[in-house]
Amino acid sequence: GPSGWCLYLRPLGPVFDGLLVLQSLSIFVLMLLLLFHC
């Protein structure tokens, strides 16, 4: 997102964005699994 980190991580660019998307997706899936498991 448009925050201060983008200025520091500009060289990583797409790789870092992909990691953020994967991390948020994995957290979302984990929350769904916990909800359906309980």
Provide the residue-averaged pLDDT: 77
Helix content: over 70%
Termini separation (Å)? 33 Å
Number of strands: 0
Could you explain how this protein is built, in words?
- The protein is mostly helical and 38 residues long.
- 76% of the residues lie in helices and 0% in strands.
- It has one domain.
- The chain is rod-shaped.
Short description:
By secondary structure, the protein is mainly α.
Main attributes of the structure:
38 residues, 0% strand, rod-shaped, transmembrane helix, (rape) hypothetical protein, transmembrane
Helix-strand blueprint:
Layout: H1 4-8, H2 14-37
